[in-house]
Task: structure prediction
Amino acid sequence: MTQQLLPCVEINPSTAPDACVIWLHGLGDSGHGFAPIVPELKLPDSMAVKFLFPHASERPITINGGMRMRAWYDIKSLDFESRADLEGVKESAEQVEQLIKAQIESGIKAERIVLAGFSQGGVIALHLAPRFSQKLAGVMALSTYMCEPALLSSEALDVNRETPIMMAHGEQDEVVPVFMGNAAFKTLNECGFKATWQTYTMQHNVCMQELNDISAWLQKLLN
Result:
């Protein structure tokens, strides 16, 4: 292992895990932010799913006056085309890839691993999964968008083209406008990926109906 793995909040099932969900938080949050949703998903014990909620490194954020906070990449501008800093995205995607590979080395098969992300975390998930060299169980991209969508067609690998990608967004999202999420959804499908799209009456957050839908999706995927 060439670098230290990202620190994580880890929630283990009561029996030895045979599946894993790696869930990436949004800007300024940490792995602790989404960890409380695990019991809300009400997954049956028989599924034996481990959840990992990694912490992004701290870095200065340009649009926040250079304030340091946990972030997967810098945001230099709110422009649709240049919101995500590609170099930062690549760096974080590499760190998450190492985390996935560590789970595979621990005995969990790649096709039993779900990569999930909210907002900035979703950007990393949508960047990494189409370029990852092993087939994953699924991808969950919540209230998010895509970094440099024009690169996808030339950089994507075939191995995850059939992998289910669940995309969900709030109709009243003022942080990441819904059109940005929908644009990412369209780009994925144009490039031959199997993405689905769902909107909810909410802002830049998650709601109970969305959690219920996530639970059903995970149960279908991993049972």
Summary: The two ends are 31 Å apart (CA to CA). DSSP finds six helices and nine strands in the chain. The CA atoms of residues 138 and 163 lie 5 Å apart.
